[in-house]
Automatic annotation (TrEMBL):
This is Uncharacterized protein. It comes from the Eukaryota.
Length: 264
């Protein structure tokens, strides 16, 4: 089989391909010698030194395809590689003398390809990003790991992950939990006393707020959603008779939701 992208019709700056690579599953890729030589620090794992008309690359076509797309600065999204395939391909970059940081940054096609697929496997993405210190990708991915339990990580991942990035993830989780507790520490504001709801009566809302908050924060999670917050206090809202107390409660919840939504 011949690659649908890297074939005889594929030109770079008007130049036709001048080298033929064959993947381990026998797919032919026609590319440019100078592109691989300029990209690689080890002459593409010394494969460019071969004098044979066909150079065999010991990788399957799906991985080689991603590597070549990265070298040429092209997106491989049309082939719909899975996130696991993308990240495994990234792990092969050093083998072929390619620096992951050079090809995975916010303005690169490969970064976009990974970012699109990342929510399907954020842990693997974060682990690989940490290992190669792909800061921007790691930051984006961390938002999908707010509930990560390190016990769910395989031994291989634990060994592979950069400990600095693992600590950052734990710090992020703890910071969000601390923020959550701070946001709920203050009950709704008291309103001016009325004949139907004096300051003593308003204390019932304060006590109810403390009770609902204790339930919500019993197992405080960094990934607590805005929806969970709103549902919890909607129940309390239904039991508040005083209109002014309702307004104070809703204003307090609204403020919490806005600040929590903006928390990074």
């Amino acid at each position: 089989a011949i690659s649908t992208k890297f074939n005889a019709d594929f030109k770079h700056n008007g130049k036709p391909p001048d080298i033929q690579l064959v993947s381990s599953d026998l797919v032919l890729f026609l590319v440019h010698h100078h592109m691989l030589a300029e990209a690689s620090t080890n002459r593409f794992n010394a494969l460019l030194d071969s004098l044979r008309p066909f150079t065999t690359v010991p990788e399957t076509s799906n991985f080689l395809n991603i590597i070549l797309h990265a070298i040429y600065g092209l997106s491989c999204s049309e082939f719909q590689p899975t996130i696991d395939t993308l990240m495994t391909a990234v792990c092969l970059f050093p083998k072929y003398g390619l620096q992951p940081k050079r090809y995975i940054h916010p303005s690169s096609p490969l970064f976009s390809d990974i970012r699109y697929q990342m929510p399907l496997s954020p842990l693997m993405t974060y682990v690989v990003s940490s290992y190669y210190e792909l800061e921007d990708l790691a930051v984006i991915t961390s938002g999908h790991l707010l509930s990560l339990d390190v016990s769910t990580m395989s031994e291989e991942m634990v060994e592979f992950i950069n400990p600095v990035y693992l600590k950052r993830l734990f710090d992020l989780q703890q910071r969000r939990v601390d923020t959550l507790k701070r946001l709920f520490a203050a009950p709704p504001d008291l309103h001016p006393a009325t004949l139907r709801c004096d300051f003593i009566a308003q204390k019932s809302l304060t006590r109810a707020w403390s009770l609902y908050t204790a339930r919500l924060l019993w197992d405080a999670r960094a990934d607590l959603t805005v929806g969970e917050i709103e549902r919890t206090y909607r129940t309390l809202d239904d039991h508040v008779a005083c209109f002014d107390c309702k307004c104070a409660l809703r204003e307090r919840v609204k403020g919490i939701v806005i600040e929590w939504s903006e928390e990074k």
